[in-house]
Amino acid sequence: MKKVVNSIESVISEMVEGVIDAYGDFYKKTETNNGLVLKQKKDKVGILIGGGSGHEPLFFGFVGEGLADGVAIGNVFAAPTPDTVLEVTKAIDSGKGVLYLYGNYAGDVLNFDMAAELTEMEGIKTKTVLITDDVASAPKKSKHERRGIAGNVFVFKIVGAASDEGLSLEEVARIASKANDHTGSIGVALSPGSIPGEEKPTFTLGEDEIEFGMGIHGEPGVKRTQMMSADELTDEMLDLLINDMELTEKDEVCVLINGLGSTTLLELFIVNRRVSEILNQKGIEIFDTDVNSYCTTQEMGGFSITLMKLDKELRKYYEAPAYSPYYVKK
After folding, report:
1. What is the mean pLDDT of residues 226-245?
2. In three state form, how does the secondary structure of 81-95 look?
3. What integer best gives the mean pLDDT of the chain?
4. Beta strand pairing status for 252-259 and 285-292?
5. Which of 39, 164, 257, 273 has its CA 20 to 30 Å from the CA of residue 48?
6. What's the pTM value of the predicted model, to 2 decimals?
7. How far apart are CA 208 and CA 238, in angstroms?
8. What is the mean predicted confidence (pLDDT) over 256-271?
9. Looking at residue 76, what is its pLDDT?
């Protein structure tokens, strides 16, 4: 698979160098690992996000004002090392503790948990909240087993604002759990992505096939079916999501239509048109809508729909301003 790279071994380090060259007035790199942190440390609970590369602008694009304070970056589709997590933790800790916030994947859980043990030895208090918004990845009764996908964006936004308000580590973790519990996503794959250095794509689909619920690393979905129109596809996805989240008339939601890498804005806005139409028909109020490609899988074709059900507390934190080079909320 053709990629614009120099060598497979240098992909991540050179990407991080390029980020610093572009946004060095905003970020700085940790000394020995692939971590990025805000240049100005804040006197508050630190928010550390992270995961494998290949999903850009997730994760580094959500380090910013009113967002996360640092990111631990892994290799493509691979968890960051415990040493990387530890170094970023130490860089953003101001003595008030650090919250680890990342998607529920076995490698990430293992390495972040190992880092938490190391930080405890350093005298730094941490808590962890896993993001589990992918409704297709496990039954509702097993929500704790679900994967984290584009719902990361909403949870990062809420938690960054809560931390900036000066809340305790325990309170920030409570709000993170609440935001995660109020968020659901469903995705569909139309074509595969690829990993630099690999000769074959991450999975295969027939020319007229799609897969419901496929994960952002190519994990199997809930079913494979024939391609259908944008409205038919959106209706089926949204029906699954609304039922899982038990949304009813007068509920208020934020909407994210997220592209997986190669799906164009033209297509994403067609999907959003149908999402808005259906939610309005059901009397579900749309507080805010975002249409963008935040959580990608290299050049995978497809998209996901994320809804976050708001209440008064979550709305307050969602409305708070935020800024990074890849995400702005005024």
Report:
1. 97
2. CHHHHHHHHHHHCCC
3. 96
4. parallel
5. 257
6. 0.97
7. 21
8. 98
9. 96
Task: Output phi, psi for 257, to 5 deg.
Answer: -100, 110
Are 207 and 169 spatial neighbours (Cβ–Cβ below 8 Å)? no
DSSP label at residue 59: T
Q: At what angle do helices 152-164 and 169-181 cross, to 10 degrees?
A: 150
pLDDT of residue 2: 87
Q: What is the pLDDT of residue 191?
A: 94
Same fold, 8-181 and 183-318: no
Percent residues over pLDDT 70 in the chain:
100
What does the block give as tokens for 56?
């850009």
For residue 304 the two structure tokens come to 């996901």
Q: Which tokens sit at 262?
A: 């190669």
* Residue 10's pLDDT band (cuts 50, 70, 90): very high
Catalytic one of 96, 217, 309, 329: 217
Residue 64 has pLDDT above 80, yes or no: yes
- Matching CATH number, 183-318, of 1.10.10.10, 3.30.1330.10, 3.40.50.300, 3.30.1180.20: 3.30.1180.20
Sequence ranges of the domains in the chain: 8-181, 183-318
Q: Annotated catalytic, 182?
A: no
Catalytic, out of 55, 90, 274, 329 = 55
Say if residue 311 is exposed, middle or buried (CB neighbours under 10 Å; 0-12, 13-18, 19+).
exposed
Classify domain 8-181 at the CATH superfamily level.
Dihydroxyacetone kinase; domain 1 (3.40.50.10440)
